[in-house]
Specification:
single chain, 542 residues, mainly alpha, 22 helices, globular, membrane, Na:dicarbo_symporter_sf, DAACS
Length: 542
Amino acid sequence: ETRSRRAASMEEAAAGEDKAGHGPNGHAEGPAAEGRLGGGARLRGCRGFLRRNALVLLTVSGVVAGVALGAAVRGAALSSAQIAYLAFPGELLLRMLRMVILPLVVCSLVSGAASLDTRSLGRLGGIALAYFLGTTLLASGLAVALGFIVRPGAGASALNTPGLGLPGALPTVRKETVDSFLDLVRNLFPANLVAAAFRTYATDYKMLLRNTTSGNVTLEKIPVGTEIEGMNILGLVLFALVLGVALKKLGQEGEDLIRFFNSFNEATMVLVSWIMWYVPIGIMFLVGSKIVEMEDIVLLVTSLGKYIFASILGHFIHGGIILPLIYFAATRQNPYRFLLGLITPFATAFATCSSSATLPSMIKCIEENNGVDKRISRFILPIGATVNMDGAAIFQCMAAVFIAQLNNVDLNPGQIFTILVTATASSVGAAGVPAGGVLTIAIILEAIGLPTNDLSLILAVDWIVDRTTTVVNVEGDALGAGILNYLNEKDKKIREQELKEVTVEAIANNKSETETSPLVTHKNPVSNTSSTADPESKESVL
């Protein structure tokens, strides 16, 4: 019986092994099944990766396809009208992005300022202002230093402007530096909010003939205020911030309007998420049409190659080394992991050359991919898109040094200081649109006494340099938002810890009635059982 039971158990064990390791045909299925399961998991992981990063991959593919399209169409000798037709899908992208800038900036700033308490608003605003001005000043100093090291204008004195496909020198309109800064202050306080959505104040000049007592005729330049095309974002930003603080002060009465702006902001972000799926198509035709427009790229690169190299090198050093170091010093976190989630806004900035047009996608990606608090991102990023122009400061200072070397002018320390201060201050009000920094270069050249005739050379390569300029601009905004988000979370944890400590001390004092203030009367007429009662159940009245 023992032998028979042992044989039966061995047969059952063998049958179990056969079921576990072999199929009905006698083939081993264990490793194969595991392999199929592993392959299915890898396939699902690959599909999930593609689904999560579909927009990023499509955007980068759009840039590559745009370069290929421009290189392929260049040999067809298209007319100006045909080039305009080629750029039409890209023009639609720019129009859609500009369409949502106004509601996005105003609503996000109103809701952001209203959601933060006054102490946090003042603290975060002060840190943001110091960060923006500090990084812009660093960028200006880096550009001037690189200009003296590389000397981009040393061998470019024989440039042929008509050969670059430009009509000639720009008309010189001498604008006083003082009037430029006064216009900046005037635009902070727009006289008409509706007009500020599409017009900006600018000073023009009228020449009057004056007869002196000696019979001589003199010309007098009189400043005249005019309105030019372009959104006055600076004035809208200031108004939205003040309105948000005022609604916060109203308390209960202002909550309905705050909810309205919050809902408006969320609806705008939904529109942005829809527009983002058109970005790859628009980018492809924008990049392709820009490549077709240039008449002689080889002549352009060989003539202005040192200037292009110096500008892009400055952008690489500032955006790839200095800004990440500042982020790491403030947060002790990996900055490149943070930037990895912002590939789509960077590609949009590269294609559109507009910080304002990149703002919708930047807000969407920095909240979803990097987990930045909505109150921080929608408060800081619109301000940064208007105020923080690190890439533009590098581009403008390098252009000023290049034109000085082109005209064989040795800059003295006073002129260098003027370039740094003027570039830092004027970049605050620079328009976040393509080629907006060229107007600021004219202000810098006038401030140091250099001719503005050579600005046409800057315009010749603006479409190349302006792309890395915009990428560095939006990178500075994003890292600033990440730093402020980290500091806000850290401050919140400190406040919670202090609150816990205060609560623990209050409970400990309730255990002993003799240690409390004599002004506190305890209403608990329990005799000896009071020591066993819950200390939090005691009721005290001052």
